[in-house]
Amino acid sequence: MTLVPVLPHPFEPRPRKGESLLRRLRRWGVMGVGAVLVLLGILIAPLPGPLGVPVSLLGLVLILRNSYWAKRQFIRAQHARPKWVYPFRRLMRKKPEFAPVFWQQALRAEKLVVKRPRRRLARLRKGLRRYARKLFR
To answer: I need a surface site. Which of 1, 12, 68, 118 has the fewest CB within 10 A?
Structure first.
């Protein structure tokens, strides 16, 4: 009979050995703030403008950074739908690039809603790039 050592799961729900009570309370508090932001985003969503989406995303990022269970669910979703999860992964980096992520999502949304000849965002960016090149020559 051979003994196989059992390694702990990287996202185990038990508190880690060095984690103090204050640190656990802080983590739960940040997760609570994240949950409130998600609910607030859902409540704001019917109002004109896209204000509910960024608020909800911020709440989800706070929850994902502090919850072991949410991290496990996020990894499962990442394996199931990598294109959907990629923007969240980019926003969760240490120094997230907000403008490129939101620009990419705006282009994707425009692609879903507007037919090809009427898409304006890509042409707008190219026009702005040409204008900037003329200015800085």
So the answer is: 1
What residues make up the domain containing 133? 99-137
Report if residue 113 sits inside a domain.
Answer: yes
Q: Is 85 helix (H, G, I), strand (E, B) or coil?
A: helix
pTM: 0.58
Q: Quick one: the chain helix, strand, coil %, rounded to 5?
A: 70, 0, 30
Whether 92 and 66 have beta carbons less than 8 Å apart is answered as no
Map tokens 């204000």 to a residue.
51
Cβ partners under 8 Å of residue 120, min gap 6: 110, 114
pLDDT of the residue at 5: 55
Do 64 and 91 touch, CB atoms closer than 8 A? Answer: no
